[in-house]
Amino acid sequence: MRLAEVMGQKRVVDALQRSITTNRVAHAYLFEGISGCGRRTTALALISALFCQQPSDGDACGRCSSCKKLAAGSHPDLHLLQPLPDKRDISIEQVRELQQMLSLRPFEAKRKACLIEPAERMSLGAANSLLKTLEEPPGHAVMILLATQADRLLPTIRSRCQHLRFAPLAVSDLVTLLERQGVEPSVAATLAPLSEGSLEQAREVDSEAAAASRQELLGALRQVRHQQVATVFDASERLAGSRDETLGLFSLLISLLRDMILLRSAAMDRITNLFLQDQLAEEAARFHPADLMEALELALEIRRSIQGNVNAKLALDRFLLRYSRLRTT
Ligand SMILES: [Zn+2]
To answer: 182 CA to middle of ligand 1, Å?
Structure first.
């Protein structure tokens, strides 16, 4: 991966390329941003640019053996520091091992590099033990710390790093990235606005299943009639599931209700579930705007109560009964 190929992080990438061309690369970086916004990709692109045998304009060539080894994850001068598979934290022993490795001469590159991910998971001992290394990495190693919340790191760690903030990805960049990964353009367009700027989140959601369950949920809501208890219980039967499934259902429900409120206030350009716009508008028209607000507040309250161990099925019934009363038809 070359820096020029990183999507949607132009400000950060420009700053990094400038620091390479002016020979002012920092010895420690802190990349802060949500998961899936490109921090890791950018870190690897920076390391490629520094390790490359034929770099130009502060970027890697993407073709030399060094670039290829980095792309394949097999470069001997890149060290990763992550929690061990069965452990929560990065331990002090792991930091000592890293320090040992960094004290050796690089095998192939001019310097070594180290990626610490997630930096928040360093134990206090590990973090303290890393301080001196961050200040003066042996052999001019470059240290890159990835964090989602930099304020959870020790101030002494933060102050030793150049802090770069990554923005969530724009919807258009997410669409491009998803399409590059072979996602159908229509699915990518549906998925990108739901992913909160994170490619990881977009990948996590099984796109078709997610769209289908939103559609299914809205279908069940549309079946509910004003004051007709039988329609409420039919909908509840259709939607009932385990506690976790019901929690997921309420999250989708909250997103649909928010969109219905936006549609009633003519803010259609801000809705999340664009692919359901017509059905959502029809459903929203059956409520007084204030009653939609009440339904949303109730959904938020009921989701909290399920998290607090209220019976999921009863909670769903309670919501749908109230929903049927709030409807005008
Ligand atoms: Zn190269």
So the answer is: 26
pLDDT per residue as tens, the chain (329 positions): 899 999 999 999 999 999 999 999 999 999 999 989 999 999 999 999 999 999 999 999 999 999 999 998 889 999 999 999 888 899 999 999 999 999 999 999 999 999 999 999 999 999 999 999 998 888 889 999 999 999 999 999 999 999 999 999 999 999 999 888 877 787 788 778 877 898 887 776 655 667 788 889 999 999 999 988 999 999 999 999 888 889 889 988 988 998 899 898 877 777 878 888 999 999 999 999 899 999 999 999 998 898 887 899 999 999 999 999 999 88
Please report, for the domain that includes residue 268, its CATH number: 1.20.272.10
**What is the Å distance from ligand 1's center to 69 Cα?**
10
Q: How far is the CA of 53 from the centre of ligand 1 (A)?
A: 5
Domain boundary among the residues 119, 149, 167 is at 167
Strand order in the sheet with 113-116: 78-81, 113-116, 142-147, 28-32, 162-165
- Residue for token digits 């060290």? 79
Do 308 and 271 lie in a common domain? yes
Q: Residue 261: which of 312, 326, 211, 203 has the closest Cα? A: 326
Same domain, 53 and 89: yes
Ligand 1 center to residue 63 CA distance, Å?
5
Residues 163 and 191 in one domain: no
**Count of domains for the chain:** 3
Q: Which two tokens stand for residue 221?
A: 């809501």
What is the rounded CA–CA span in Å between residue 301 and residue 299? 5
For residue 110, report the distance from its CA to the centre of ligand 1, in Å: 13
